[in-house]
Amino acid sequence: MRSDRMGTAERRPWLAWVGLGLLGAFLAACIAIVLIRHAAFQTNMFDLGYYTQIIWNTAHGHWFATSLKPQMQLGDHFSPIEILLAPLFWFVPDARTLLVVEVLALVSAAVPAYLLLRRKYPMLAPVLLLAFALNPLFHQTVSHEFHESMLAAPTLALSVYALMTRKDRLLWLGLALTLLVREDMALYVGCFGLYLLLFRPGRRWHGVVVMLVCLAWLVLLTGYVIPALGSGVYYHTGLFSRFGDSVPEILQAIVRDPWSALEPIVASVTNGSLLWFLLPFAGLVLLAKGEQVLWIPALLLLILSEDPFIRRLESWHMGPMIPILWASVAAVIARLRPRPAILASGLLLAAAIAGFLLWSPFPGGGRFEAAAFQKTDHVKTGHRIVASIPSEVSLATQSKLGPHLSVREDLHLYPWFDWDAPPEMIVLDAKTTAPYPLTAPELQSNIALLQMQANLELVWEEDGYYVFRIGSDRANPRHGPWAWDSTLELTDHALAQSCGTGAFLPVGRGLEAGCTLRVELFWRTLSQPTGDYTISVRLLAPDGQATTQADSQPARGTLSTLDWAVGRTIRDTHYLSVPLASTPKELSLVVLVYDTVTLEPIAPTEGQVLTRLPFDDAPP
Question: What is the pLDDT of residues 585-598, one digit of tens each?
């Protein structure tokens, strides 16, 4: 009979509700955090948008299909367990569904630890949950969005709980499901076999069988199945290329020369990666009686990777490890006598608080970035634009907008698509702070080039957002033509204005004071220009005085007329600031062309009057 002074769950049933309350509150808080971050356009095409499209396609009968990579997903990573998520997209087809699944999967990692400690010390089990909630490893992992390997957290939680409570059938079920999460999860399952071999005398042959099955499974998938379904090779072994080009070669190299792995391990100690990983656990994971076998091989594999992102030990790669680590901590505390158990729990909580203050990206943590959670007016405009894009159209967009537009069959990361088979629409944000894969100057240049294409209709421009529709037909101009000498012909023009940060809308009754006028000119070369010309767009008062003007080379300064091919039609966009007040009630829109070097105008020297616009001098 147990006589510890902390009592039992039967004598203190309210402790169960404390634990459940903590777990539920933490779950709700995590869901809110990831959804707020997503709403602020802080998630990415890879991986959230990528997996959203895959699950949506699978839910609609296009099994594991994606347009974001050159092959189906099973040719990249073998993850048939994702089929279980497809029914969710019959009811809630949204990237946020996967964010909720991600949180549920990772929070489930705390369940076996809580149940294991509650059996011995029910009063300490809620303390363990609180330490889990403050541990920055969880926060870093969940902040890296959904990834299929996170689905191993609940299956490994089931496995480690079954292992420690000696429930064999539950153990085999958990391990079998884990193998279906991803090919490299065979390493985790194999470690369970190693544990059985080393620490369960009555189950040693089971351990050997598990290890052999995992090795065969890993070699079969990486050597044959995945290459056959994909591009013919399993390229993820490139992360360990200094050891070999295939799984067998890598394993043999490490076994033959284990010292070759020493350098990256030492580096992880000196650069602090292992410190930030171990400190919030108060080092208790190192005191377990054999459970280290379940996670140290996977940790070493991450450290041996040639990818510095993986070696930092703070990405989604850590997700499968979390339930094993916490179950190990629970086992360590449960094996202690009451007073040392209380001391260890207090030390664990203090270490978790310190880790939170130093390294957590959650609100209040040391790496918290408030800007990543702010839904600014610019972001709100983006949501209106995203909501207007039909789900049936093919689309190219940026990384930050991608997850919000990924519920469609054909999606591309701009500018990675084939112009011979282009998408129907392009959606871009010129103000984004993360224009991957372009730099900010490259993005601005790309937008200018897109605006130059006459067959791209700019259907929405607002606050730095651009929505282009490809394949617009301007065979029947609404205005013009106007000719300049024998060189240029202006075939058409279009006018729109924006007031404040609002969208550009067609000019209706006339110009409004304080707004911005967008003038789109559709030019065609009749013969090869002999000079480098500048286009001048002006709003003139009746006395001929310019109230505002914009001068630049064609296509927002990106095209020299010396390089303009004969017969090519382009869109030339200019922006004019409409004056806040003006005496005349009507302004003339005039276009002139002059030599950039000599400033001599090209005939007609006085330019062409495109239209006369009534002017409202009342500020909007």
Answer: 889 999 999 999 99
